[in-house]
Each structure stands twice: as structure tokens, then as C-alpha cells.
């Protein structure tokens, strides 16, 4: 996986959330995102849900999720932007509150600020430092978040995290952020 560049963008529009994936190699080198576990056991028991679906919903608020590889899934659209760069973000850290350029309604609550987690998520209402993926909602983990990568990352070891407004949207981008304890990077 480390021989190709992984990129994800999270987009917030008033009343809309988008997660886009891109590999920076062009359509002839399209990569499909998937989860795989080798061997006889899960190395992290209890953190991985048993049902890994590529689409679902709507939930009681009308939200759906769908992978771009699914029929009628979203079409990737690269967004090139120069945003505000977050400096000195450590392992299991967050920054915020960061003012959004518009009010954003998420699960019936309206927010004007967001928090960026070093482990690949944005949250509303409060920051979090959670690095373990789990099913949500769950009483033991942050629930008020959009997890566009949500894995154990360490931007203190390298990479750039930036955010900003692009036309009528707000974008958060991770570029070459290091995996915790590993040599791989993600761009999201």
C-alpha cells in the first residue's frame, strides 16, 4: 500500500458532507479502498465491526454513506487549494475550535466551529484525541465526528495538515502525514 499515494478530502457544505478519495496517479491507476486482515485473527480484537459495508442508510436523520466504487457512488473531484497550515500538531492531538465560513447542521445541531483531530477526523462541539476506530454511535468514543481516515497517525513525525474555504465549501486536507510507529504516510 505504501507504493502509491492515498488521498482523501472531506468536504463540508451547508447541509451536505462529502468524502472523496484520490490516488494522485490518474484514472489509469485507480485504486479501490478496502480493508483486509491477513492471518487467522484480528490484531485489534473488538475495534473492527463485523459488517464492513460500502454503503448504508439513510439513518433517522437522512444521512447515507456510499463508496465511490458502488453503483451510483460519488464521482471523485480533485480540489486544489491553499489553506491555513496547522503547525506543531502532536501525536493524538487536536486543534480548534476553528471557525467555519458558514453554519453547518449535523445530526440536528448547528455548528459554526470544527476541531481537527491528528488521527484523521473532524469533530463538532469538542475536540478529541481518539485513534482507535470503532462502530459509532458508542458511549465510549467520540460520536460527533466525521471520520475520513481515523487511524493512528503522528503528524509530529512529518506531514502537513491544512484547512480552508474553497468557494462555498470548507476543506480539510492531510498531506503525507506519518502513520504512528510506521514508515507509511497518508494524504487525506
UniProtKB/TrEMBL annotation:
Record-level GO BP terms: cell-matrix adhesion
Q: What is this protein called?
A: Uncharacterized protein
Record organism: marine metagenome
Amino acid at each position: 500500500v505504501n507504493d502509491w499515494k492515498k488521498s482523501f478530502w472531506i468536504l463540508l457544505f451547508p447541509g451536505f458532507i462529502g468524502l472523496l478519495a484520490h490516488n494522485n496517479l490518474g484514472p489509469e491507476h485507480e485504486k479501490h479502498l478496502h480493508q483486509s486482515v491477513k492471518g487467522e485473527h484480528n490484531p485489534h480484537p473488538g475495534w473492527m465491526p463485523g459488517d464492513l459495508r460500502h454503503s448504508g442508510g439513510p439513518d433517522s436523520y437522512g444521512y447515507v454513506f456510499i463508496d465511490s466504487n458502488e453503483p451510483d457512488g460519488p464521482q471523485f473531484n480533485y480540489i486544489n487549494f491553499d489553506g491555513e497550515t496547522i503547525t506543531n500538531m502532536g501525536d493524538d492531538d487536536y486543534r480548534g475550535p476553528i471557525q467555519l465560513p458558514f453554519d453547518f447542521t449535523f445530526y440536528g445541531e448547528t455548528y459554526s466551529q470544527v476541531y481537527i483531530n491528528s488521527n484523521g477526523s473532524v469533530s463538532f462541539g469538542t475536540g478529541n484525541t481518539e485513534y482507535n476506530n470503532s462502530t459509532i454511535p458508542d458511549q465510549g468514543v467520540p460520536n460527533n465526528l466525521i471520520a475520513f481516515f481515523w487511524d493512528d497517525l503522528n503528524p509530529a513525525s512529518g506531514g502537513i495538515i491544512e484547512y480552508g474555504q474553497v468557494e462555498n465549501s470548507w476543506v480539510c486536507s492531510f498531506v503525507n502525514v506519518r502513520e504512528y510507529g510506521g514508515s507509511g504516510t497518508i494524504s487525506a
